[in-house]
What we know:
With 345 residues, this protein is of the alpha+beta class.
Amino acid sequence: MKAISLLVILISSSFSSAEIQCTSLSQTVVDWFITFNRGGMGSSYFIDAGGDTWQLANSADTPVANTFQKYFNAINPHEINVIAYNNFPPRFKRKFDTSSGKGVIFMDATAGSWIVHNIEQFPDFYINSFERQRVHLPGFILCFSIAPDQLVKVVDAIEYEDPIIYFYELPRLPRMDVWNSDTFWHVLYGILPQTTPFLATKAVQTIGNLSVLVFSKLGSANMDIYSKYITYESESSLITYQAQYEYYDEVHPIVCNSTYSVRNLYGQLKLPREYVGGKGTWTISSDDNNTLWCFSSASRGRQRTLKVSESVVCLNHSGIYTRFAEIGISPNAPFLEQCVVGDSS
């Protein structure tokens, strides 16, 4: 695939056998969690499968820290499979502009997790502890607990992102079936990126049977994935949050037509006790009968989205939808563009 895939980092420190599933603040395994890292202070707000309200966790004891510590504190490397990808890898001077994906996959013989995020240069597997990781930047981190039979589906989904794999460990035992698949070796070593089809929808199932839909487009698909694809696949109008843009003309414009609309939401997030700076693109349905919530590490910028391989992770979950709807379509919401009656843009 890319030269970076050949720069395999092998860590010689000791590990232990552990099921690295998503782990809550109370150190119990959960089906999923979503955290918003506040930046600077290192603390974060989170929601998880154990409860649908935002909670605040300090930097030393967050769901993300508890999940990663299972890896960094482990003893036996032969029981943990790891794939880490980031278009701005740790210790690199610049990012790769043709890809946008950021994530980590952990898997042992019985269970694992798929972590999706939008934090550059994270995690650094040269650093054998979580406390020293680069997580002081603001951003989202999502975790999904998955069974081994879902691993091939995750790899199949991230293939569309043309991922920059900067670290992997493939233990001889247990040998995962996905390592024998053409998809995996294409992701790891493929010199040429996938060229067709331009768009794809994949599905990954969590251990708790939450369906994670992954909408993807190739870099050669010269289009806005939200207005041209996700609206029609989900049969829903959308609101997309655009925190990282100061000027509205840097973002794909509002789309208003008789079928589905896509409106942009700007400003700071209003979480339980404070306004916090945001980063990343998240999306909710604006239809009353739809509970869709989506996240992407790629922006909806005009220039970036035209040439960048991109995936958008979506969940139909009423609790998650409600928490973000309170931010996006409540009276306390940041600036939300409105469609004008008769506007067919």
